Amino acid sequence: MLAAAKAGDEAALVALVSGSHPHVQRFAYSLCANSHDAEDAAQEAMIVLFRKVGTLRAAGALSSWMFRIVLRECIRRATAMTHRPEPVPEPVTGSVEDDVLRRLEAERVAAAIMALPTEQRLVLIMRDVQGLPGSVVARSLGLSVAAMKSRLHRARSGVRIGLDGHDGSLER
After folding, report:
1. Position 172 in a domain
2. Cβ distance 124 to 155 under 8 Å?
3. 105: in domain
4. Last residue of one domain, picked from the residues 24, 52, 82
5. Domain match, 14 and 48 both
6. CA nearest 113: which of 150, 54, 157?
7. Is 106 helix (H, G, I), strand (E, B) or coil?
8. Of the residues 33, 57, 82, which one is the last residue of a structural domain?
9. How far, in Å, CA of 8 to CA of 5, rounded?
10. Digit-coded pLDDT (tens) for 111-154
11. Those residues with Cβ within 8 angstroms of residue 66's Cβ, 6 or more apart along the chain or in another chain
12. Same domain, 7 and 78
């Protein structure tokens, strides 16, 4: 049967693989850490047999060849298991209501920023959102650092007023 499989006879190859599978699977179950790894190791051995049956020299070597493949695959899987990083726990997220409230707050802040005059909005976005240094913001907008700081202060005040709904002056 091995000679026929090596010659390309598909029926012989199928018979060889299906006849070997129960023995290979039993061997894999005795070696591997869990049933999932054993199934995968046995499957890997069958794939290697299917692909490389033509390279096998002697019929007597078939079983030892298959068992070496299974052994190597079980060892590879066990090694990979010991070197796996610890799973990172999912971040604790709040409730759906918390997510909705955060999005609504972000929308309020974005609306307050969009309501600013363009020159203030540019300074605020470059400095506070993008995190650029004040000197870089001033240079890119053609301003002195003092002028940039003044616009940034007015922009921050404008956002605060937009969020609070008043101008911050003392009421009597």
Report:
1. no
2. yes
3. yes
4. 82
5. yes
6. 157
7. helix
8. 82
9. 5
10. 888 889 989 988 998 898 778 899 988 998 899 999 999 999 99
11. 20, 23, 24, 45, 49
12. yes
Residue 89 covered by a domain: no
Token pair 């390309």 in the structure block, residue: 8
Q: φ and ψ at 138, to 5 degrees?
A: -60, -45
Measured at the CA of 113, the angle between CA 108 and CA 118, to 5 degrees, comes to: 155
Contact 108, 163 (CB under 8 A): yes
CA separation for the pair 119, 106 (Å, rounded): 21
pLDDT at 89: 61
CATH number assigned to the domain comprising residue 34? 1.10.1740.10
Decide if 18 contacts 40 (C-beta within 8 A).
no
Query: How many domains are there within the chain?
Result: 2
pLDDT tens figures, 7-65: 778 888 788 777 877 888 888 888 777 888 888 888 888 888 778 777 776 666 777 77
Max distance between CA atoms of the chain, in angstroms, equals 104
Residues 45 and 68 in one domain: yes
Query: Global pTM?
Result: 0.43
Residue 67 has pLDDT above 60, yes or no: yes
**Residue 171 token pair:** 């009421």
Between 165 and 124, the more confident residue is: 124
Q: Which residue range(s) make up the domain with 113?
A: 96-164
